[in-house]
Amino acid sequence: MRTALEQLGYGPCYHMYCALQNPMECEMWTEALNAKFHNKGRKYTKEDWDQLLGHCQSVSDVPTAAFIPELHEAYPDAKVIIVQRDPDKWFASCRQTVMTFASSKSFPASLELPILYFLDRWLCRRMAPMMGVLFTSLFGSETKDPVKVKENWIRGYNKAYDEVRSLVPEEQRLEFSLDQGWEPLCKFLGKDEVPKTPFPHVNDTDDFQAGVRVLMNRMWARAFKMNAPYVAVGLSVAAAWYWQQSR
């Protein structure tokens, strides 16, 4: 959906990957999530949303989906596209994307991220809280029972869809399935010309994992740059000790 909106001129489209690329934005999302779901701090106003999202022409996915009432109040004339997906397939996609990247209490599940958390705490201390607060707020407390995990996530998914339908006037929302292609989307958005290119069917799982890999590579580069002086000192001390021992 993000790709289609950007092709129609509604870019940039804010997406979860945007937040992960910008640690300071993660801090703002954590602040907004704590205010909404845990009554910690002040709730965000339109000025705050403008600061966070004002450079974008559209939004998609979480974390914005956690703030449907707030964004509707801030931007009451905005049109809303409800992308219809099978909840079971949506959950399967989440298991291979955000659920592998965010395992709430300990940053994520992969071996790389705990190492990066140690090497670059400034960066990871901004991402980890956002991911943890976001998913526990939307989908309930942690449980290791895979059946309950799925139930919690699908319940949260359906709740969000029901919330959109109850808040947004019918004339401002479109019930849309990706296999419908460009025509109903362009008609709803008031676009006179329908793109001649095929409707983008980007693989969400592959796209997200590729994006995370790029992000991880950047994090490694930053960690090496930050820790290079300490490594150099450590190697110098080790070399001096070895030289002393070998005399």
Furnish the topology, listing elements before pairings.
Blueprint: H1 2-7, E1 13-14, H2 16-21, H3 23-38, H4 46-53, E2 58-59, H5 68-74, E3 80-83, H6 87-95, H7 98-101, H8 112-119, H9 121-139, H10 146-167, E4 173-176, H11 182-189, H12 204-246
Parallel strand pairs: 1-2, 3-4
Task: Give an account of the 3D structure.
The protein has 247 residues and is mainly alpha-helical. The protein contains 12 helices and 4 strands; from the N terminus they run H-E-H-H-H-E-H-E-H-H-H-H-H-E-H-H. It has helices spanning 2-7, 16-21, 23-38, 46-53, 68-74, 87-95, 98-101, 112-119, 121-139, 146-167, 182-189, 204-246, and strands at residues 13-14, 58-59, 80-83, 173-176. Strands 1-2 form a two-stranded parallel sheet. A two-stranded parallel sheet has the order 3-4. Helix 8 (112-119) packs across helix 12 (204-246). It starts with a helix and ends with a helix. The model is unreliable at 103-109 and 231-235 (pLDDT under 50).
Q: Could you tell me the mean pLDDT? A: 81
Rg, rounded, reads 22 Å
Helix content: 55-70%
What order do the strands of the largest sheet run in, or round the barrel if closed?
A: 1-2
* Structural class assignment: mainly alpha
- Low-pLDDT stretches: 103-109, 231-235
Can you count the beta strands? Answer: 4
Shape: globular
* Beginning-to-end CA distance, first to last residue: 67 Å
* Proportion of strand residues: under 5%
Specify the biggest β-sheet: 2 strands, parallel
The number of helical runs is 12
The arrangement of helices and strands along the chain is HEHHHEHEHHHHHEHH
